[in-house]
Amino acid sequence: MVEQGQTSLAGQRLGAPETLGISTLEPGHKPPAMPPGHLVPIRVLLLDDSEEIFDISHRASGRVLFEMVCLHLNLIEGDYFGLEFQSHHRKMVWLDLLKPIRKQITRPKHTVLRFVVKFFPPDHSLLLEELTRYLFALQVRQDLASGRLTCSDASASLLVSHIIQSEIGDFEETQFSQTKHFLISLLKKQHMLVRYVLKHGSWFKLVLSSGRTQKQVIDYVKENEFKKLPFDRKHSRVQYNSSLSPLRSAQHQVPNQVSVFTYECFQIHTSHIRTINIKGICLRPVLMIFICACLSFSEVTCALVNGHAEDCRGATPSPLISPMLNDTGAIRTDDEEDNRRKNCPTDNAYCIAKELLCTERTYLKDLELITVGVLDKEDCVPEALKTLLSSTYEPLHSHHTHFLQELEERLSLWEGPCSTEVKGEMQRIGDLLLKSAQELKALSGQLQMISECVFALERACVASRRLECVCREFELQKVCYIPLNVFLLSPLHRLLHYRQILDRLCKHYPPTHTDYSDCRAALDDVCELEAALRPGLEQIENYQKLLELQKDLIGVEHLAVAGRQLIRLGCLSKLSGKGLQQRMFFLFNDVLLYSTRGITSANQFTVHRQLPLHGMTIRESEDEWGVPHSFTLMVQQQSLVVAACSESEMEKWMEDLKMAVDMAEECNGLTADLLSASKDVKSSGASEVVESEDDLCGSRTSLPRNGNNSGNTLNRGNTTAHVCWHRNTSVSMLDFSIAIENKLSGNLLRKFKNSNGWQKLWVVFTNFTLFFYKTHEDEYPLASLPLLGYSVTHAGESENIHKDHVFKLHFKSHIYYFRTESEYFFERWMTVIRSATVSASRTRYLNRTEPD
């Protein structure tokens, strides 16, 4: 197997100096050899309360034991964690990783070490591995249960609610339909926690009575005891009709539409367990074992939303506002979802129309990011650039806003009950698409100016340091979930999606169908417009990728120039005197660049060397060096041996390298010295010096803009290059071209491997990544999941899903299940996700066809 190189150290991300006291387990590397001596069993209590026994030499250091624990957990970011034990003074002390264990623990057989979090990062986004975030959530759970976590009562109850949410998932009416009651274990020392959780428990769902929280129900029971008063909402401004009840309450004003309900409150087991059954209201069922302050759960939470990074600030509703006030934000149960599906049309024409509606909603929000987010920066955007962007994107935004309104009206009529004659007129979208295509042809001038907008924005950023910083800060905001230039190019991408939608409709309809002629005419118009814009689209797409790489790299100048084309980027392992070292390689049509090991604190790669392609030869060298999937690059009487992670990766790299060498022979005068003057980088023609594997200090200094680190400015850490680095894979420009055509939006039900509940989410797939929203109206995603390196398969019968239209995403130990609402959307999601999980070779790309 090819050993992977070391990622950026957690100690560096913590801002700590490099010392021998901080141990990082490098992925693929084995822990230090066990010293001789008799083995002693040592017990380690993990964060999930499980206990493991490790047999270790009595002469071994603490580092050996710690790395054995990390290997057992498959943990890479070990710097954040440590082992603690109780000393003979009955104080908790840290296990010193440098000293022998026998000098620290006098009775190892009778001592239990605890594996706990030792350092908390300043920003949770610095935690790169999902397992690390999961362990942090377990630590928060333990600190919360033991009272070591200092926070307000409201914050504590909110954290508990997130923990409960991750444990049992969302409400399933099929599972709890006969259990419309709520059990509370009122043991000693738990009354305070119960009170706070119920007081601030916005996570309780009252399914049959929208807009009411558990706090309001408890207030009603507490104030009125057994009086059968109608329930009211404190925040409602509608006055209650006093004729409904003989009693008046000065605190409660009930809206007229709220019906009267009754409740029963009775004791079922001494004074410890009390059951509250409120007729007509289905409380969100929660197993109250969490009251025992020993919460057990299988999926991460608190700072995570079911396994994905989330910033709880701004994403969590107020505890006093019911999460079901807005039906669009509600998470449907299985029965509700099944009933909704039965009431909706199931033919492919409707599903295609709904796909168009969902993707149009996402596209319009992307346009609003430009017309509202960028153009509002009036103080730093030059007037000429603002005029150009406004004249280009505002007419497009106006057109698509009107088009989306028409689509929503048509789909609502399509889904609703109506006569046969009306159905024939309403169950079609060809006329809307034809009208939109004709209007887009009238806006072809704006579409042709999109490339100029990208060039103009880059020129303005070069001329204005302030504008460059503003754009970079804007890209770091959660609302800007992909690079800004990709948003600028979205109108050109949208034409490709219209063509696909119309092509599927024309294949679905027979020629005699009333909607066929409109769809065919609209398809001809869109294809004509796309053909006129495609040459410019290919050029500007390549330029946009070069600009993105220029921001990701340190030590290069003038990367984005005319004539240079990106071919492939990704990870290879470089063979050196120290063994195999993971490096990032960037292949262009004239030069091959590769980086030093690791990522800087500013989320950038430091380019170490450039290899000209002119005269380069490539040959397999697995037998020569004994390294699987290795090949040798020969240029200017020097050789470089690299290895891929798999045979398919090696074949793709060799295929693209040979093609790039052929292109370099035809390219005259393009290759130049791209490396900036820095001690960390050198060209292949420079004199050989010892390569510094771990010297990242120089990469943290300020370099010129093209260099490309602007002081301490943080760059995006979720670009394609970063994902390739962490997943040890690669992508080509052909993969980017395929990804442009495979964008999709819509609702999916998500479930984790060890959870029972399904959570309904609005999901956007773009740029090889799934972005998760609560609803399509949310401003920014709650979490994201890059799919490079993942595999997508059907959920097998052995996995006990027992649902239709379920597919599985898995990468190493990470497994996610997703459900779609129909067979059509199941096939569509499988198709677009496979475009990201299965990297394309040129042969496959040229021979591929789109499924019907």
UniProtKB/TrEMBL annotation:
Specify the FERM domain's residue ranges: 40-316
Stretches assigned to the DH domain: 348-536
Q: Which Pfam families match?
A: FERM_M, FERM_N, PH, RhoGEF
Give the protein's recorded name: FERM, ARHGEF and pleckstrin domain-containing protein 1
List the molecular function annotations (GO) for this entry: guanyl-nucleotide exchange factor activity
Which keywords label this protein? Cell membrane, Cell projection, Developmental protein, Membrane, Synapse, Synaptosome
User: What's the chief localization of this chain?
Assistant: membrane
Q: Could you read off the lineage of the organism from its UniProt record?
A: Eukaryota, Metazoa, Chordata, Craniata, Vertebrata
Which Gene3D superfamilies is this protein grouped with? 1.20.80.60, Dbl homology (DH) domain, Phosphatidylinositol 3-kinase Catalytic Subunit, Chain A, domain 1, Pleckstrin-homology domain (PH domain)/Phosphotyrosine-binding domain (PTB)
Listed GO CC annotations: cytosol; dendrite; filopodium; plasma membrane; synapse
The record describes its membrane topology as:
Peripheral membrane protein
Q: Where does it localize?
A: Cell membrane; Cell projection, Dendrite; Cell projection, Filopodium; Cytoplasm, Cytosol
PH domain: from which residue to which, for each copy? 565-662, 741-838
**Record keyword Ubl conjugation present:** no
